[in-house]
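Order emerges. As here.
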Amino acid sequence: MKKRSVLSLLLLSSLCTVFLYSLEETIVLGKEDNWQGLLLGNCVLVEGREGFLDIILADNEYTADGSTDLLLHFNSSDEITDLPHYTPVVNNGSITHKAAFAGSGSGVFQHQKETLVLEGSRHSLFYPGVAWKDFSIEFWMYPATLEEGETILLWQGSRIHEREITHQELRVHVQGQRLVWEFENMFLPPDLSPFTVTVRGLTLLIPRRWAHHLLRFDSSTGLLEYTLNGEPEGIGYATRSGREDGTVYLPKLGENPESNLTVGSYFTGLLDELRVSSRFVDRPSLYKLGTQKGSFTTRAIDLGYTNTRVLAVEIDDNTPGDSDIFYYYRVSNNLLDLNLDRIPWVPFPSAGPFPGNVRGKYLQFYGELYPDGSQVHSPVLSNLAVTYEPDLPPLPPSGIRGEGGSNSITISWDPVPDEDISGYLLYYGEKPGVYFGQDAMEGASPVDVGNTRDFTLTGMENGKLYYFTLVSYDNADPPHYSEFGAEISVRPSKLGAAR
């Protein structure tokens, strides 16, 4: 007997454990739903190590402003430019998504004469007859071979003066494993005589390494400055003296309508973030990531029932270097409170236990992503796993019994064995399954009888058959209601006989 008792207790304990464990449920954001309903700020979704989507900081790509004339991200072969100032005349290039300095792609060039040729509109700098003032030309380059004469940018035109045709050319090319910027007859002396400015780099370029190249012109001094990765490489002056103190010559394109801008002529390698601006760019972007934080906001997760308790939040993230992610949550039984930002965000640690007694029907997360100090490494968030215990509705009352008296009916039942039961609703009516009774002095159906186990309705009509059922409710706010219990029928009479 003793062994049987012990075995019975163990079996009961095991069943209880299984029952309690089965109440826990888990939702995985990211891995299961591909971050459905996610809002991102300065962040993007990328394919992660397991083929699911990860959240990372967006690369520090340029955005067009009022001075941007040309901007090539090379993220898509369908969208050549971000601005309508240029139309591709020839587009034999391709895009790779495996190697890019910033964004999702870079332009691939494979030693062709005409890889990408752009025709400028009348709103562009490279339109016949346009006069320039301050300007900047910049790009990221990943050379493969650095062969002599490889040309990154080429524009050719001509101007006519007194029936004389003067050739004009802008050429950015490789010479002696260095980059050279040549402006032939683009800067106009007052007498329109031939004038060429050449700015040469000093540093030997390294194949198969990304480097930033910038040429900028200051129209107030005539300075042409070439920088490599933000460091000065060479200067020239578009002035009469060839120095800072001479008369400044400003660039002006001739009227030749056949002049187009060619990108990557006989160049082998990758280009990214090619930008032409009608201003002197003082601070170019030299880092893959910016200094600004990124953010994400998940959808409001429906946990099924009000007052549901959040047990744990397991985070799968990676923070290389000194990058970081800060996490916040908010919870409510009312979805409108979240949609209208009535509930403040609460910080919680990415590791360790989740704060205790977090309850609600709707749960939402917010996060802030920060790059490392070198602005190279981004934190990565793969998924958020939320384990919670639904605050399920209570069981319906059982063992419902009824006894009729004279103009009264007493209903009794077995109490529901739940600790959080707050009371019961007694439903009554005159037809099976239809509980809209109004005869009782205690009120119309349903009557809130409180947390008791029997209740008497008075004022009932003798001889009339009434139908009854009960619903239990718990102490949640708002409360959860059980399903209807069993239905019984009772007919009151002066004799007090039960039916």
The chain has three domains: 24-58+291-389, 68-277, 398-490.
